[in-house]
Automatic annotation (TrEMBL):
This is DNA repair protein RadA. ATP binds at residues 95-102. It comes from the Bacteria. GO terms for molecular function: ATP binding; ATP-dependent DNA damage sensor activity; ATP-dependent peptidase activity; damaged DNA binding; serine-type endopeptidase activity; zinc ion binding. A motif (RadA KNRFG motif) lies at residues 253-257.
Length: 454
């Protein structure tokens, strides 16, 4: 008789353990291990080298045509997807609750349905009437979208297989789906993995693009097993703060396009609207004569976005412990910049509290922001504004050397288009008209430039 082997699966990260324990050994979550039915263990070994069928092998240099694209009618969404939806592709869209995932997909579904395409919207969290009321509130009530409220993957697949030429299917959300072939409640690791596998297999066999909406954990990562992100073709994250108007759709993985591409939206009464020029959004109502305020040309995929970096230093009484607070940037990198400024330039931040903020709630991971952050800190410490109509970018080494960064000409063109006429950065080639570059070789050059500028 074969015996069944017990296993315990972490509901946070998907790690498997063969005995229960209070804390997951991989992610550290408490009380997250749930017993699931394991595989059947046989005493005899099986030989996999026989009994299979031969597979066809092809050459790498064989002719292949680019996959066709289905435009969604929303240019910012098409940009993130690499030009539109690829038939048969699977897309995972994650984001915080209430950020606008369902609104974005409902608007995209309406645009495509009005173009004559067959669009199916399956909601596992809301009734069909609730989705219909939202569509009417957004002015999409006349769109011929096929709606349903269901959570059974078997029922959903049976319904979809009766339809032909379906262009796109939206599943909102994958954590609510349930497969009767797997034991466990909806949302568990095994249910999410099995449900996604069946839906993705349908997409590949039928040529229908499928979009899976995913919940996120408290730290912002997509809930469920990590293998879910490996199964799909594209992973996109919808980001933003509820207190801010804008939303950013960011591509994390894309088998059919560039990664790190972004689309910018603004949440308004009529739903999400596209922001064609995000730089103007993040620099609106900016006062250029404030110490500690510096403009940095960030690069997201192929799109340059000008954002404001704000710094503030506050003198402390002797003996107090200075505080370092960062919003929108890496706190470890701020500590490195402060250390280089003290060691290589002789500036003293040990007796000051330091606060750093990226304007508009934007988040930056570009290392080219080093020079802009350093300039904001120097300006705040000296209480001197940086030169007007200037941008700053470049990477700082621990030696105090300023190193070049990629795509400097793209950053310069965007700055010149918005009226900036000076860039403080490493030496650049192919400088566009309308903007000049002041070369800085070391961090000491940057300090001299800010302290001696008018």
């Amino acid at each position: 008789m074969p015996k069944t082997k017990k296993k315990y699966v972490c509901q946070e990260c998907g790690a498997v353990s063969h005995r229960w324990q209070g804390q997951c050994g991989d992610c550290g979550a408490w009380n997250s291990l749930v017993e699931e039915v394991g595989e059947t263990v046989f005493s005899a070994k099986h030989d996999l080298s026989t009994g299979g069928r031969t597979i066809a092998l092809s050459k790498l240099d064989a002719d292949v045509t680019p996959p066709p694209r289905l435009t969604t009618g929303i240019a910012e969404l098409d940009r993130v997807l690499g030009g539109g939806l690829v038939p048969g592709s699977a897309i995972l869209l994650g984001g915080d609750p209430g950020i606008g995932k369902s609104t974005l997909l409902l608007q995209a579904s309406a645009h495509m349905a009005r173009q004559g395409r067959d669009i199916v919207y399956i909601s596992g969290e809301e009734a069909a009437d609730q989705v219909r009321l939202r569509g009417q509130r957004l002015g999409l009530g006349d769109a011929p979208i096929r709606l349903a409220a269901a959570t059974s993957v078997r029922d959903i697949l049976a319904t979809l297989q009766e339809r032909e030429n379906t262009a796109m299917v939206v599943i909102d959300s994958i954590q609510t789906m349930h497969s009767d072939r797997i034991e466990g409640a909806p949302g568990t690791v095994s249910q999410v993995r099995a449900s996604a596998h069946e839906l993705i297999r349908y997409a590949k066999e039928s040529g229908t693009a499928i979009i899976l909406v995913g919940h996120v954990t408290k730290d912002g990562s997509i809930a469920g097993p990590r293998v879910l992100e490996h199964m799909v073709d594209t992973v996109a994250s919808f980001e933003g703060e509820r207190s801010h108007q804008y939303r950013i759709l960011r591509a994390i993985k894309n088998r059919f396009g560039a990664t790190d591409e972004i689309g910018v939206f603004a949440m308004e009464g009529a739903g999400l609207t596209e922001v064609a020029n995000p730089s103007s959004l993040f620099l609106s109502e900016r006062d250029a004569n404030v110490p500690g305020a510096v403009v940095f040309p960030a690069l997201e995929g192929t799109r340059p976005v000008l954002v404001e970096i704000q710094a503030l230093t506050v003198k402390l009484a002797s003996g107090a412990t200075p505080r370092r607070a960062v919003v929108g940037w890496d706190s470890g990198r701020l500590a490195m910049i402060l250390a280089v400024l003290e060691a290589r330039c002789g500036l003293n931040f040990a007796t000051s509290e330091v606060y750093l903020n990226i304007g508009g709630g934007y988040r930056i991971s570009d290392p080219a922001a080093d020079i802009a952050v350093a300039a904001a800190l120097i300006s705040a410490l000296a209480d001197r504004p940086v030169p007007d109509a200037s941008i700053f970018f470049g990477e700082i080494a621990l030696s105090g050397e300023v190193r070049p960064v990629a795509h400097g000409n793209i950053r310069l063109r965007e700055a010149a288009k918005l009226g900036f006429d000076r860039a403080i950065a490493p030496a650049q080639k192919d400088v566009p008209n309308g903007i000049s570059v002041q070369n800085v070789v070391t961090l000491a050059n940057l300090v001299d430039h800010i302290l001696t500028s008018n």
